[in-house]
Amino acid sequence: MSKVLVTGGCGYIGSHTIVDLIDNGFEVISADNLSRSNPITFNGIEKITSKKIKNYKVDLADLNQAKIIFEEHKDIAGVIHFAAYKMVGESVKEPLKYYRNNIGSLMNMLDLMQMHEVQNLVFSSSCSVYGNADDLPVTENSPIKEAESPYAHTKQIGEEIIKSFTKQYDLRYMLLRYFNPAGAHSSSEIGELPIDRPQNLVPYMTKTATGELSQLTVFGSDYPTKDGTCVRDYIHVMDIAGAHTCALKKMINEPNGDWSNIYNLGAGVGRSVKEAIETFEKVNDLKLNWAFGDRREGDIIAVWGDNQKAKTELDWTLKYSFEDLMQTAYNWEKVLNERGLNTKA
Q1: Residue pLDDT, tens place only, 148-206
Q2: What confidence score (pLDDT) does residue 324 get?
Q3: What is d(CA 340, CA 336) in angstroms, rounded to the nearest whole number?
């Protein structure tokens, strides 16, 4: 059983990935300082997997704190690095906060992996690196445009740091550029749990549906898209999780393969905000209270991706539909509501 370090393991995608890794026979340890997550997530992971996760509550941007993990675990086979701030709007307002945290924690991970001869890295990147692409869908060879936000810029910089690092040191990496993860585990034991007012569309919809938020604001109605609203590629979080497991398996089981590579992780379909709302309403048999608002700084007009490379090279398959995504997201929100765990926004 290979041991994996998942940084940001209490976060949204990190927690679902831990579940998928355990389901596929991996031993998992986590590093999460809980500044942007709720430790009850680990209870949910334990209920699903019957495994208690060891979490290191450390600041990975502090090398002295981060090195404790590697000193106590000499047998780490790979690192999946999620730990980063991710709110576009906040990054616009507080750019230095994002550069210090997102870039600092990554550089420390690379230092420690080199020191302890850990050779396999899966990096949580983002479709935001493409900016406002000239051609859609974007492929892994699409040009990297100017970042629309400091958050996106940290992902661009992170990718370049990893590429430069591996020119000098023996490290295999996979840069996974995912699009818009949403939904929740089918058990409704874990899901997206924002610590503040949600910034992403799907949790914004679910919280409006339960009445926690009085109204959903759609940011912008005059974009050059088919209905004036932004277009995104929505993918179920468990499909994203499964891709990380596939990536790590490839690197560990085929160590001589050329795994220093980039992969798009999306459903491969562009859906507008209005289309997402309509699907959510239909699947969950309800009507949302929503209205248009002004455009939001940092938002990309439209992006969706070609996912064929990941499907072919990683043996990755999509198991969840857009409707599954909307239904599991709302089921999770209702559980939060029942347990009194809603974000008071």
Answers
A1: 899 999 999 999 999 999 999 989 999 999 999 999 999 999 999 877 777 789 999 99
A2: 98
A3: 6
Helix (H) or strand (E) holding 172: strand 172-178
Closest-CA residue to 41 (of 17, 61, 21, 5) = 17
76: phi then psi, degrees, rounded to nearest 5: -70, 125
Q: Residue 229 to residues 152, 200, 269, 284: CA-CA distances in angstroms?
A: 21, 14, 15, 22
Beta bridge partners of 97: none
- Asked whether the CA dihedral 59, 65, 67, 69 is positive or negative, the reply is negative
Q: What is the reported pTM?
A: 0.95
Rounded to 10 degrees, the C-alpha dihedral 258/7/37/218 comes to -20
Helix, strand, coil % (nearest 5) of the chain? 40, 15, 40
- Name the H helices within the chain: 12-23, 40-49, 63-72, 88-93, 95-98, 104-115, 150-166, 201-209, 237-253, 273-284, 308-314, 322-339
Q: Which two tokens stand for residue 151?
A: 């958050």
Instruction: Write the DSSP symbol of residue 130.
Output: G
pLDDT of residue 177: 97
Catalytically annotated residue among 85, 98, 151, 178? 151
Is 151 catalytic? The answer is yes
3-183+234-267 has which CATH code?
3.40.50.720
C-beta neighbour count of 167 within 10 angstroms: 8
pLDDT tens digits for 132-148? 888 999 999 999 999 98
Range 23-48 average pLDDT: 96
Contact 251, 172 (CB under 8 A): yes
Token digits of residue 29: 């340890």
CA distance 72 to 32: 16
Whole-number Å distance between alpha carbons of 320 and 162? 31
Higher pLDDT, residue 297 or 106: 106
